[in-house]
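chain below, 661 aa
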Amino acid sequence: MTQAEAASRAAFLSAELHRHNRLYYVEAKPEISDKQFDELLRELQDIEAKFPDLLTPDSPTQRVGGAPLEGFTQITHTVRMMSLDNTYSEEELTAFFARVQKGLGREKIDCVIEPKVDGVAITIRYENGVLKYGATRGDGATGDDVTNNLKTIRRLPLRLPKDGPQTFEVRGEVFMTKTGFAKLNQEREEAGEALFANPRNSTAGTLKLLDPKIVAKRPLDIVFYGLAEASDVQSQNEVYALLDAAGLRKADLIWHADSAEGLLAAIRELDEKRKSLPYETDGAVIKVNSFADQRELGVTSKAPRWAIAYKYQPEQAETKILAIDIQVGRTGALTPVARLEPVLVSGSTVSNATLHNYEEIERKDIRVGDVVIIEKAGEIIPAVVSVKKEHRHGHEKHVHAPTHCPVCGTAVHRDEEMVVIRCPNPHCPEVVKRRIEHFVSRGAMDISGLGESVIAQLVELKLVKDVADLYDLNELLLARLERVGTKSIDNYLKAIAASKQQDPWRLVFGLGILHVGAGGARKLLEHFGGIDAIAAASVEELIQCPDIGEIVAVSIHAWFREPHNIALLDRLRAAGLNFTQRAVTAASDKLNGTTWVITGTLSEDRETIADTIRSNGGKVSSSVSGKTTYLLAGEEAGSKLDKATKLGVKILSEAEFRGML
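prediction:
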């Protein structure tokens, strides 16, 4: 194939693949099978590999993601991305419409009502029909450039139809479908990985991933609702027409209303119909239709006066408690879990509900056989809200706090202050499993591949009785596991060997000492310099470590004096694990004398950003106080942002933080 022939064929294939993507994802009228589509895509990939100069940024082959990024750059929004005021009250919604009437001086004002998709706000710019960039909301003024991650979304056109609009910036919401999220969690469960809490959180986390190839495996989708600038568009209705012409998905359900009564009727109808939507919704967005009216109403410092979000109350359902089981955690904590008659809540079937602790069971007088109200506010496991005692028939069974561990039979210990019942047996099989799962987790020793099912087999076959036994595993022992091949065994052993070089704070965190999280483990190593020094410290000396209070200090001191823990540490040391904090070479002294608190979703995980702050001379704290110099606030910053504002602490976006460095 000559260069000219390759260019011609590549152009044809690219146009065909864009067309078939549109037919499949936008118009729902596919003309070819998935296999035929993949064959066309593979042919284009082969041509681009042979003739690299034919590869273009909008090529359909670029959806699979390029090389991992080192970090996200920042994009300044052409028009600020504002959030909406919201309400849970129909009375407040009526009051909003009254303010709109007063502001415009007339009774009838046409408004549009559409579902509020529970996703992540995004802005995307097209120039000359080609996707130029996409960015998150960030702090409203600047956001992360997540273009490569957005390109993995099949429904998002990389190139627009030539007969439609070509240059504009559009605002939308990235989300995970209900079915896609359920499948993703099922795959994670089978792989022994932690489940995502809800579709919105997993969407936000996915967009923050630096490797587009991983993003491409996640079930992301997108819907659009507005424009950044609208010089040629005069109403929300015209926005919908533009989206249709560009092949961009708009809201699945749209209502119009010109009175308060009409608005209330629309949100009530949406509440009924939203259960059938493919994505999670948590409310309705109401906007004045006319852009001239929007301009007249104006905006406040953070939200438009011409729009509001009406939030629905968390969905509840009535069901029956069939049994109450006990789950044993890594610290030995015994947690009661209700097994329910399956019931549909928020679009998914629920058969378990958390009961938190036995004090709550007593307080709510929850019994086996009770009819209860459960609530699912976006989380995986819902909670029992209340008992319908009027439905009792006298055969319900009281639930008593256990006196012995249901797994190993050891007499339990009750921590009165924390209302926790624990199995004190460190060799309890369930405790061992959970401790090992924590030890190998990404936040601790990061031993990839050892999921729940593999760990369960290791414990059941008595190949592993504590975390130190992991370092005695070999090919012969691992060969006894079911459904584990030689390649997996090799990967397990390499990951275990690599973990010996992890920083010692990860080991301290991985040991699962009660009350010691990742941040506390870091503080301990920074203060004492090594695990042996921590082990030798008195309670008074431990309290001298920043962020370590008396309760935590007592817990640490007691852990390092348990004979079986002393023996465990000796074995880990003999296995070659790192017990001494390495000297960190300072990148600069630009942050000397500053104390930082990190909150919200950022481009990297908090520990990585904390390392950056420390390496440039700053200190990191877990809570906001008068001593805090800066609050580094990402998206979805919560109570820490409020407290920092009240205390007058300077608040920085990630872009401003990176600028300081």
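The chain has six domains: 3-64, 86-311, 315-414, 429-499, 504-574, 595-660. DSSP finds 24 helices and 22 strands in the chain.
thats it, cya
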